[in-house]
Design brief:
Layout (H helix, E strand, L loop, with lengths): L3 H12 L3 H10 L13 H7 L2 H22 L17 H18 L12 H11 L1 H18 L2 H21 L8 H18 L1 H9 L15
Helix pairs in contact: 1-4, 1-5, 3-4, 4-5, 4-6, 5-6, 6-7, 7-8, 8-9
């Protein structure tokens, strides 16, 4: 039985696993943060090491957020230690806290001098466990923007913005009655703001026309 504190701490540690740093060190003997864009994320691994290596890192980082939200949150069997003033069930609130801790761990990893990735993949894993319908739409937005622009950063920023917009439209336009909407909408805005903040250097490069494109990816390969 774990308390809320230990669930959050364990989720942070799982999120802190520096996948890109480990992969780059094992395969090339380099610190990925000293190459490419200097970011310890899957996009930079694609840029420096290759597409397959980058996809592996991204998938593992997604898995970190999913593990924290779906499995680590379930380790808390003790009663919620605070009065729950939200419309969410106690377990859903624990999931949000655990998933958020994993995102923080990915961005500020204790295993990498508190210098990690930008949190997009880990946030995706969290949302797969927490809001699967909304994340499917968000992934669709990312995919379309990336295929058109070939900028992963622009796709990520667009996806971050799409998350709260998806919740808003489902609840207010399509009348889907999203459970806990009054809390989730503010949470989604917070997550979007955090992800945009971690992509601030990318936004600057996009405006200046200096952002790196992924040109070695083809959705359909000619035979």
């Amino acid at each position: 039985m774990l308390s809320l504190f230990y669930v959050i701490f364990l989720s942070y540690l799982v999120g802190s696993i520096p996948t890109s740093i480990i992969v780059a060190k094992l395969l090339k003997g380099i610190d990925i943060r000293q190459h490419g864009s200097g970011n310890a994320g899957g996009t930079n691994v694609i840029r420096v090491l290759g597409l397959k290596e980058g996809i592996f890192v991204i998938v593992f980082d997604i898995f970190k957020g999913f593990i924290a939200t779906v499995f680590i949150a379930k380790l808390m069997y003790s009663p919620f230690p605070f009065k729950n003033l939200t419309p969410l069930e106690d377990f859903t609130l624990v999931q949000i806290l655990a998933g958020s801790a994993a995102i923080v761990g990915h961005i500020w990893t204790v295993f990498g001098g508190f210098k990690g990735g930008k949190g997009m993949a880990t946030a995706t894993g969290m949302l797969i466990g927490l809001a699967p319908i909304d994340i499917l739409i968000v992934i669709g937005v990312f995919t379309i923007v990336f295929i058109i622009s070939r900028y992963i950063s622009l796709g990520s920023i667009s996806a971050a913005v799409a998350f709260p917009l998806t919740l808003f439209f489902r609840e207010n336009i399509f009348k889907a009655e999203v459970e806990g909407y009054s809390i989730l909408i503010f949470f989604s805005i917070g997550i979007a703001a955090l992800l945009i903040f971690t992509h601030r250097a990318n936004i600057k490069r996009l405006i200046e026309g200096r952002e790196h494109k992924i040109t070695n990816f083809h959705l359909f390969r000619k035979k």
